[in-house]
Amino acid sequence: MLFLRGLRPAVCWIFLLGAMSLGHCARAAQLMEYEVATPTTVDGIELNAEERQWIRAHPQVIVASKQYPLYQFKDEYGQWSGLNIDVLDRISVMTGLHFVHEETFSTEHLLRRLESGAADMTTTLALNDERKLFLDFSHAFGGSAWVLVGRAGAPLLQSLEQLSEKKLVLPARHAMEATIRRDHPAIELRSVKTYAEARALVESGEVDATIENETGAQLYPVGQLKIGHTVEGSWEADHLAVRKGQPHLLSILNKALEAFPPAELRAIRLKWLDGIAPRPALSFWQRLTQWGCWGVFIVSLFGLLSLLWNRRLATLIKQHLDVENDLSEQLAFQHALMDAMPDPMFMRDVEGRLVMCNKSYEEALSTRLDQVQGRQLIEVDVVPRETAEQLHAEFIVQLDSRKPRFTKRQLKFNNGVREIYQWTVPFYGADGQVRGLLGGWTDIGLRRSEGGCECSR
């Protein structure tokens, strides 16, 4: 219970952080709701007789499609996918139009297909004066800005004026090409086929910059490139571009876009583009709140870990004290047991130093444990020198051989020669290694005199 009371502050903080995260969960739930918001049944739109007749006369609408993730691209199965594909699929259900995609490999190739009449429409072209000569554009259904893309390590590109007297590369017939030639003649403009070629030239340092759709620029690893500021006044709306001479097709597409449910269009854009475009910079107070939340979380986590660690330490300390008490009790019992033995007993380590002895040992050699503990027999004056050297040598040999020894012998003590029955046995640790000798002796003469009997020899 004390442990639970100690955890209560940390639990409160964690509950608070959980409540603060509900806002993020609600946002995620909204995104999920948008993603599943597409209705299973779609109502058609009202078309006039001429528009219905046009659809019957044109069973297929050829769409010139250039791969441009995430707007339109071929998936691993070779099927067209992406934001614009979802929009066209929805329009197809609403109107009855059947879209057939014809792949093109560059902006110039796509424009030639439309100019020649080989394709009826496309979905990824930006509007400019040149294209309005042979294309009609539908209502907008989204959009993004153009951004400057320069080489990493170079100054951040903030405007086209910064590229004066420098090289700019664009795919051929880019939507911004005419504007740049007219308004920024000091920029040296170079044309290539694709955006991939343009990025490669910037990375190699052959040119200074390129211009790319903001969404597209965020899709690729930065590597040797650096994304700069947006080109001022260059918002690129998303349109469906229709080859001129097809007013009925344009009218049908505009009616479909007008009837397109806003929630569904928003769900499609979130499905493909959420997390790709750069997030707006947080204000100071937003950053401060964010830092505060993280700070509270870290402090709470540290507090919880500290409480758990303290609890663990308290448990370990208690276990350690319990073990010490048990060992103390065992040691006291061993001392009491040895002291209760009538014959002298001793314990020596692997170097022959005395570890422990009983009272009978002290009385037999007229000494005390504190005077001889930790010392070899040859280092103390409790037996004659020759006896001490003889017994110490026997102890060392026995520790090497690890064999018990039981012998009846006569030994010279300080108070004379005695006939004794001596025993010594090695003892081992938990790891199986010898730790020393346990031994003692019985004074045969003293026992004979005390018992009043003759003991066989």
UniProtKB/TrEMBL annotation:
Keywords: Kinase, Membrane, Signal, Transferase, Transmembrane, Transmembrane helix. GO terms for biological process: regulation of DNA-templated transcription. It holds the Pfam family SBP_bac_3. The chain crosses the membrane at residues 288-309. Residues 337-378 form the PAS domain. Residues 1-28 form the signal peptide. It comes from the Bacteria. SMART domains: PAS, PBPb. The keyword Nucleus does not apply. GO terms for molecular function: kinase activity. Belongs to the bacterial solute-binding protein 3 family. NCBIfam families: sensory_box. This is Histidine kinase. It comes from Pseudomonas frederiksbergensis.
